[in-house]
C-alpha cells in the first residue's frame, strides 16, 4: 500500500523575523566597582575585553523574570501577542526541573503553547532559532517566540577574576512567523556544530548527574563556572569564522554582501578577529559588550534589540549572526533585516 502524499507541512515555509525585544536588570555594575573587591582594574578589563560595565540581577530576580520582560517586548513589537511555541535558550534555568520556558509562556499569557529550553551555552540562541525555524518549516508552529535569557552571575565564582569581570545578566527575544524564503526577515541557511571532546574548556563541574550534589559534598569551586580563557579565545575565533564563512557559502553570499556582523559578544577582541578572518570590515560589526558584558545565550538577541533601537539595523540591511559557546558549540545564520516596530 502506498502512503498518501503528505499534505503537511506546506512547502517552502520559512521563519521570518517579526519582532524583537530586550530586558536588562535595573542596576549596572562598573569595572571600578568590581575592581574594589577583585585584583583587577578598569584599564585591564577594558583593554582585554572591551567591557565597561555589566548588569547583575538582584537576589530574587530569576532568569524567567528577565525572559518575560524581553518576550513581552518582542511580542509587542511583532504587533500580535500570540505565539504557539516558546523556546528559551539559557545556561541558567530557574531550577533543574521543570524547564523554564513553560513558566515564561504561562506568564506571557501563552498557556497551551509548546515550550522548552535549549541548552547550548552561548550558542543557545542560534540553536533555538534553528529549532524554531524547523518547527515552522514542519508546520508544527505558525509563530514562535525565541528568547535568550541568563542570570549568569549566579554561576560566577566571585573570587575568580578571569570570569567574574566578563559575564553579565540580561535577556533578548525575537518573534518568528511562518512566511516565505524570499521575504525580508527570512532566516537561513544555518550552520550548526559541536565538539564535545572539549567539554572541559567551559564547564560548571558539579550539580548534574556526573558530579552530584545530592548526598555528596562537592568541592566549593566545582559549583562555579570555570573557563580556560586563552584556549576558548582561540576556539571562539576559529569556530565562529569557519561557521560564518560556511553559512555565507551556503547562502551564495560574499563577505562584501554583509552589512552587519552581529556576533556573540564574548570579547571585543574576539569579534574583531572574526571580522578580519571572514573579511568583513570591523566597522560593520555591531558591539554592545561595553555596556552589557558577555550575557551568554542572551547576547545576540540583546545586541539585535539594541542595534535595532539605535537605528543601526534598518530594513534591507543584510545581517550575519554567529555564535560560539561551551560544549563546545557554534552556529551561524543570515537574514535581511525586515521593517519592524519598536515595542
Ligand atoms: O562566551 C563564551 C566563550 N567565552 C569566551 O569567548 C571568552 C574567551 N576568553 C577571553 O575573552 C580572554 O581569554 C579573557 C578575557 C578571559 C582573558 O584575557 P587574556 O588576554 O586571554 O588574558 P590571559 O588569560 O592570558 O591572562 C593574562 C594575564 C594573566 O596574568 P599573568 O599570568 O600574565 O601574570 C592573568 O592572571 O592577565 C591576568 N588576568 C587579569 N588581570 C587583571 C586575568 N584576568 C584578569 C583580570 N584583571 N580580571
UniProtKB/TrEMBL annotation:
Its EC number is 2.3.1.180. InterPro entries: ACP_syn_III_C, ACP_syn_III_N, FabH, Thiolase-like. Residues 265-269 are annotated as: ACP-binding. Residues 116-196 form the Beta-ketoacyl-[acyl-carrier-protein] synthase III N-terminal domain. One of its GO terms (biological process) is fatty acid biosynthetic process. Residues 248-337 form the Beta-ketoacyl-[acyl-carrier-protein] synthase III C-terminal domain. The keyword Cell wall biogenesis/degradation does not apply. Pathway: Lipid metabolism; fatty acid biosynthesis. It holds the Pfam family ACP_syn_III_C. It comes from the Bacteria. It is found in: Cytoplasm. Its main location: cytoplasm. One of its GO terms (cellular component) is cytoplasm. It catalyses: malonyl-[ACP] + acetyl-CoA + H(+) = 3-oxobutanoyl-[ACP] + CO2 + CoA. The active site is at residues 122, 264, 294. GO terms for molecular function: 3-oxoacyl-[acyl-carrier-protein] synthase activity; beta-ketoacyl-acyl-carrier-protein synthase III activity. Catalyzes the condensation reaction of fatty acid synthesis by the addition to an acyl acceptor of two carbons from malonyl-ACP. Catalyzes the first condensation reaction which initiates fatty acid synthesis and may therefore play a role in governing the total rate of fatty acid production. Possesses both acetoacetyl-ACP synthase and acetyl transacylase activities. Its substrate specificity determines the biosynthesis of branched-chain and/or straight-chain of fatty acids. HAMAP family: FabH. Belongs to the thiolase-like superfamily. FabH family. Homodimer. This is Beta-ketoacyl-[acyl-carrier-protein] synthase III.
